[in-house]
Amino acid sequence: MNNHSFWIYLLIIAGSTYLIRAIPFAAVQKKITNRFIRSFLYYIPYTVLSAMTFPAALYATGNIIAAAAGLLVAVLFAIKGRSLTVVAAVSCATVFICEQLMHFLGVL
Predict the structure, then answer these.
(1) Phi-psi region of 81 (alpha: psi -120 to 50; beta: other; left: phi over 0)
(2) Residue-wise pLDDT tens digits, 14-35
(3) CA–CA gap between residue 85 and residue 43 (Å, rounded)
(4) 8 Å CB contact between 87 and 74
(5) What distance in Å separates the CA atoms of residue 24 and residue 104, rounded to the nearest whole number?
(6) 98 Cβ partners below 8 Å, 6+ apart?
(7) Are 88 and 95 in contact (CB under 8 A)?
(8) pLDDT band at 107 (very low <50, low <70, confident <90, very high)
(9) Residue 94, SS3?
(10) Which residues of 34-48 are buried (b: 16+ CB within 10 A; e: fewer)?
(11) Are 85 and 105 spatial neighbours (Cβ–Cβ below 8 Å)?
């Protein structure tokens, strides 16, 4: 790719990203009072984060079974209210133990 194409692509991406953020501010001048719309907008960041994180969590290791076990343990510890450090450490340990157990049993 030459230098000219790069700058064109960069300007298009920057413009589209800016417009996605700027149009709602320009279109909505007053505070949103509708409960449904406010509730919908409140949960969008969590939904997007979940949609991006969930597939990555399952394919982060070479073994989907161990990854699923780690994800399950992480969800259970998060529901119990543990800190992010504890959730991450326990889920990593679960994946490691599952992979070692599968190698020992000859499943892999």
Answers:
(1) left
(2) 998 888 888 888 888 888 888 9
(3) 24
(4) yes
(5) 55
(6) 63, 65, 66, 69, 70
(7) no
(8) confident
(9) helix
(10) eeeeeeeeeeeeeee
(11) no
